[in-house]
Amino acid sequence: MDLFSRSWTALRTAVAELPDEDFERPSGCTGWLVRDLVCHLVVDAQDVLITLVTPADTAPTVDAVTYWKLVEPPTGEDPLDALIPRLAAAYGEPRWLKFHLDDVGSAAGRAAALADPAARVGTRDEVLTVGDYLSAYVVEWTLHHLDLFARLPSAAEPPAETLAATRASLEEIAGAPFPAAFSDRDALLIGTGRRTPTDVEQAALGDLAGRLPFVLG
């Protein structure tokens, strides 16, 4: 619960501090501007609120790690992916996107803090505990925090503890560790295909290089 709060608060704060002109810059999500990514975060926050009020009375089917599936890289043909830029453009001005994310995002944060970690909820045709669900979302928030600043290197990065936790989750999802010499940030960027490894990094990856990228869905 603590890491969920830290990662989500850091991401929302980062968005709130963005100058308006940065909303028109490319994000780390292929084909999306920063404004599109922020709009996606609004949808994510809504998903958190919906899931936390969708109780389940059956046994968990997934946990914080198995919640994520390894999928093929996006092609841009998914209807929701195509819808997000249109929704983002409809806001008109960055201040309205900021306002909506702060409004819905704050509510999602409060709901998470009040939720019973042991309670079971349903989402994506799966059942898991609230604690596992929120832990899974630390991965979502941290990767999208990196996406937010993919073209804004001077901006603040995600908290170190959430980078470390997300790396550990990705390694467990992938069933393999990244080289110890890789920073948590580089392991996540390279591991998820957000950055191409250098020749030295490629060599350090060994057989793991042939399995990249690990795209989560």
What structural keywords apply?
4 strands; mainly alpha; globular; single chain; two-stranded antiparallel ribbon; 217 residues
Order of helices and strands: HHEHHEEHHHHE
Helix-and-strand structural type: mainly alpha
Tally of helical segments: 8
User: For this entry, what is the oligomeric state of its chains?
Assistant: single chain
Shape: globular
Biggest sheet descriptor? 2 strands, antiparallel
Which strand order spans the largest sheet, edge to edge or round the barrel?
1-4
DSSP strand content: 5-15%
Whole-angstrom Rg: 17 Å
- Say how many strands there are: 4
Distance from N terminus to C terminus (CA atoms, Å) equals 22 Å
Give a written overview of the molecule:
The chain is mainly alpha-helical. Helices cover 53% and strands 6% of the residues. It contains 8 helices and 4 strands, in the order ααβααββααααβ. The strands form 2 sheets. A two-stranded antiparallel ribbon has the order 1-4. A hairpin with a 2-residue loop joins β2 and β3. α1 runs parallel beside α5 (130-148) and α2 (34-52) runs parallel beside α4. The longest helix has 21 residues, at 94-114. The chain starts with a helix and ends with a strand. 36% of the residues are buried. The mean pLDDT is 94.
